[in-house]
Amino acid sequence: MTAQPITDPALRSTLLDRVAFNADGLITAVAQDHATGEVLMLAWMNRAALDETLATGRVCYFSRSRKSLWRKGERSGQVQTLVDARLDCDGDAVLLLVEQKGVACHTGRRTCFYTALRPEGAVELMPPEIAPDVLYGA
């Protein structure tokens, strides 16, 4: 099940006006698997990234390091398809319910949240499913 793209630019603009982007023009975006509830990753979106995501149904983020839009899976093929987008009560975070193709983490793991902080120390909960050099063709 994927979200219907919002093709009306005026409606998307009205929706985006509800978002409380921070001083850098960004909003925190949490990606969660729509079927399992597993939290996959946290990233950032600017207005253009959120607009593109709503318009196309393919999740797009803003890369702070590259200072450009980053379409999830553009290099790795590990695409996220939007199922639903939910703004929090303050309008300063967005929850993206997604259908994840392959792994979400650049380390080759299903989720970026694979390290547990325990009394015995930091514990890796899962090994990579795919080596990063294979994932990115390095």
UniProtKB/TrEMBL annotation:
Q: Which reaction(s) are listed as its catalytic activity?
A: 1-(5-phospho-beta-D-ribosyl)-5'-AMP + H2O = 1-(5-phospho-beta-D-ribosyl)-5-[(5-phospho-beta-D-ribosylamino)methylideneamino]imidazole-4-carboxamide; 1-(5-phospho-beta-D-ribosyl)-ATP + H2O = 1-(5-phospho-beta-D-ribosyl)-5'-AMP + diphosphate + H(+)
Keywords per UniProt: Amino-acid biosynthesis, Cytoplasm, Histidine biosynthesis, Hydrolase, Magnesium, Metal-binding, Zinc
Tell me which domain of life the UniProt entry assigns to the organism this sequence originates from.
Bacteria
SUPFAM superfamilies documented for this protein: HisI-like
Which pathway does it serve?
A: Amino-acid biosynthesis; L-histidine biosynthesis; L-histidine from 5-phospho-alpha-D-ribose 1-diphosphate: step 3/9; Amino-acid biosynthesis; L-histidine biosynthesis; L-histidine from 5-phospho-alpha-D-ribose 1-diphosphate: step 2/9
Q: Which cofactor does this sequence's record say it needs?
A: Zn(2+); Mg(2+)
Q: What is its EC number?
A: 3.5.4.19
Q: A Gene Ontology CC term for this entry?
A: cytoplasm
Annotated Phosphoribosyl-AMP cyclohydrolase domain ranges read 41-114
Q: Which residues bind Zn(2+)?
A: 89, 105, 112
Location in or out of the cell = Cytoplasm
- State the Gene Ontology BP annotations: L-histidine biosynthetic process
Q: Where does Mg(2+) bind?
A: 88, 90, 92
Coiled coil stretches, renumbered: none
According to the record, how does the cofactor bind?
Binds 1 zinc ion per subunit.
Name the major location.
cytoplasm
Uppermost EC category: hydrolase
**A Gene Ontology MF term for this entry?**
magnesium ion binding
Protein task: Catalyzes the hydrolysis of the adenine ring of phosphoribosyl-AMP.
Subunit description: Homodimer.
Q: Report the sequence similarity comment from the record.
A: In the C-terminal section; belongs to the PRA-PH family.
Record's protein name: Phosphoribosyl-AMP cyclohydrolase
